[in-house]
């Protein structure tokens, strides 16, 4: 009996399964195989699982190992346990065998939906990005591209919502994770150039009202940490040594006897009593907590909440009105925002049981200034081209402020070909700047190249497949697409 095709949230490519007959003849005599599912279904996601039941001549199940094969390893990969993964659009036959008994299903992997206007000459981006998404099971993504200050490509790929099979819009909102840090750095530098923030001031002097947990002495080493050092990630905390307090919202709240999950202020109170991992300014160690503190510094210097200052004084003048700090729970999903996917679940930071990692495995609201923003790819490029130092679009920051933004603690990086400046990684030889971001359910990348190109790439998954290398392969893939372009269009989608 045929049943209606239905959408399911387990994978993001369509898989049409049609059962073929089994062959019970051969040395195994009366054995037969049945593959499930056997009726036409639609599975939306990076991979799915087929099962095969082996039965004897009387129809009773028997315990026999099944060998799985595919007729096209370029289209479908199949594992020993029957897990199938779509690698490229096309069709393949997947077969289960025991001896000479076999059963087969036909698996079809269609093209990912694409939104936005396709541009002649830029097809390499569509082809390479979607192939990478298929390879690693990423449900949806968005890519925007600038050349010499002009927005020349804005595309959506795959699915914003797997249950409804809603395609990703070219201007869909995504969590941007640590791509938030350039936004925070620019906000601090804007206050600095207006005389409201001394970069060499003590970072913790801005919140003298925050006290360590009862019975714990305040660490005097904190007085040596400057705002500038927080921007450079040389403040003294090393998450590899002592862990990342921004991802311990229950234990930090309990230690301070504060409501859970812990706000950024609660985490700061906890950290007031903790030792540093190294003397401030002596080495680099990427610190989400340092940028959490920067958000509170910005709020005090601006005289208003961090998010309000950034939205009103940084983004709105650039014509960016949809960016905001995101919400942890799916009920807080903004209009136009994608859903986020991860292969695992965890205990909710709100204490309400098991949840998907992206919707309660961490407390996004407390991560506002280091990883909490949501944005579209085109709007991230509106932001980037306003601080990129090129003359193609007016810069929001003064040239001297941009020069400050690109400085670093040179003695920390020595002869390295790249370094962390203020909110950006920078490779001086090519004058490339960039920042990436990663959370369960999120992969993001923002790049400003010295050749006048810039791009923002956002995705609604990170580890759909075990041992995923999607984030590591994303940047080289986009550079590969750049290398295939022979002529850049003269359009400007910003207008």
Can you tell me about this structure?
The radius of gyration is 26 Å and the shape is globular. Helix 1 packs antiparallel against helix 13 and helix 6 (264-271) packs across helix 7 (288-302). With 495 residues, the chain is of the alpha+beta class. Strand 18 (419-420) and strand 19 (425-427) form a beta hairpin. The protein is 23% helix and 21% strand. Strands 9, 10, 11, 12, 18, 19, 20, 21 and 22 form a nine-stranded antiparallel β-sheet that branches.
Keywords:
495 residues; alpha+beta; nine-stranded antiparallel sheet; three-stranded antiparallel sheet; 13 helices; 22 strands
Please summarize what this structure is.
This protein has 495 residues and is an alpha+beta fold.
Radius of gyration: 26 Å
What does the average pLDDT come to?
Answer: 90
How many extended strands? 22
Shape: globular
Q: Which structural category fits the helices and strands?
A: alpha+beta
How are the SSEs placed, and which strands pair?
Layout: E1 32-36, E2 47-49, E3 51-55, E4 67-70, E5 76-78, E6 83-86, E7 90-98, E8 101-109, E9 114-115, H1 123-136, E10 140-147, E11 150-161, E12 166-167, E13 174-175, H2 180-193, H3 227-232, H4 239-242, H5 249-256, H6 264-271, H7 288-302, H8 306-315, E14 324-325, E15 345-347, E16 354-356, H9 368-371, E17 373-375, H10 377-384, H11 399-405, H12 410-413, E18 419-420, E19 425-427, E20 432-439, E21 442-448, E22 453-459, H13 470-483
Antiparallel strand pairs: 1-3, 2-6, 4-7, 5-6, 7-8, 9-11, 10-11, 10-22, 11-12, 13-17, 14-17, 15-16, 18-19, 19-20, 20-21, 21-22
């Amino acid at each position: 009996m045929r049943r209606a095709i239905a959408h399911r949230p387990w994978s993001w490519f369509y898989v049409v399964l049609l059962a073929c007959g089994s062959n019970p003849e051969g040395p195994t005599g009366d054995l037969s195989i049945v593959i499930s599912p056997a009726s036409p279904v639609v599975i939306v996601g990076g991979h799915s699982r087929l099962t095969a039941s082996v039965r004897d001549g009387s129809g009773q199940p028997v315990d026999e190992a099944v060998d799985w094969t595919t007729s096209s390893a370029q289209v479908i990969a199949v594992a020993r346990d029957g897990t199938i993964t779509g690698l490229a659009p096309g069709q393949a036959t997947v077969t289960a065998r025991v001896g000479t008994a076999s059963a087969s299903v036909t698996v079809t992997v269609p093209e990912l939906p694409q939104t936005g206007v396709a541009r002649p000459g830029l097809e390499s981006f569509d082809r390479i990005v979607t192939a990478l998404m298929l390879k690693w099971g990423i449900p949806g993504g968005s890519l925007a591209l600038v050349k010499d200050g002009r927005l020349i490509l804005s595309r959506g790929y795959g699915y914003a919502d797997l249950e409804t099979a809603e395609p990703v819009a070219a201007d869909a909102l995504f969590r941007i994770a640590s791509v938030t840090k350039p936004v925070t750095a620019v906000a601090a530098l804007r206050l600095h150039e207006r005389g409201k923030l001394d970069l060499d001031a003590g970072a913790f002097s801005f919140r003298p009202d925050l006290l360590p947990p009862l019975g714990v002495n305040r660490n005097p080493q904190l007085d040596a940490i400057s705002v500038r050092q927080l921007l450079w990630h040389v403040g003294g905390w090393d998450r590899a040594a002592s862990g990342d307090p921004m991802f311990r919202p229950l234990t930090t709240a309990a230690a301070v006897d504060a409501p859970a999950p812990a706000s950024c202020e609660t985490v700061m109170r906890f950290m007031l009593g903790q030792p540093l991992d190294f003397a401030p300014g002596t080495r680099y160690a990427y610190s989400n907590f340092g940028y959490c503190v920067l958000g509170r510094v910005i709020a005090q210097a601006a005289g208003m909440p961090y998010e309000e200052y950034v939205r009103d004084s940084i983004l709105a003048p650039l014509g960016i009105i949809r960016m905001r700090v995101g919400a942890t729970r799916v009920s807080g999903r903004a209009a136009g925002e994608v859903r986020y996917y991860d292969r695992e679940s965890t205990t909710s930071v709100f204490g309400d049981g098991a949840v998907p990692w992206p919707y309660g495995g961490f407390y996004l609201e407390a991560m506002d200034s280091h990883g909490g923003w949501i944005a579209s790819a085109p709007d991230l490029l509106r932001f980037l081209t306003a601080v990129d130092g090129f003359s193609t679009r007016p810069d929001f920051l003064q040239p001297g402020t941009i020069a400050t933004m690109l400085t670093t603690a040179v003695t920390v990086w020595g002869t390295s070909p790249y370094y962390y400046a203020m909110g950006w990684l920078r490779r001086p030889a090519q004058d490339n700047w960039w920042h990436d971001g990663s959370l369960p359910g999120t992969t993001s990348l923002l790049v400003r190249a010295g050749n006048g190109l810039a791009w923002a790439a956002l995705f609604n998954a990170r580890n759909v497949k075990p041992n995923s290398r999607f984030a590591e392969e994303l940047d080289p893939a986009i550079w590969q697409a750049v290398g295939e372009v022979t002529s850049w269009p003269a359009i400007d989608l910003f207008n």
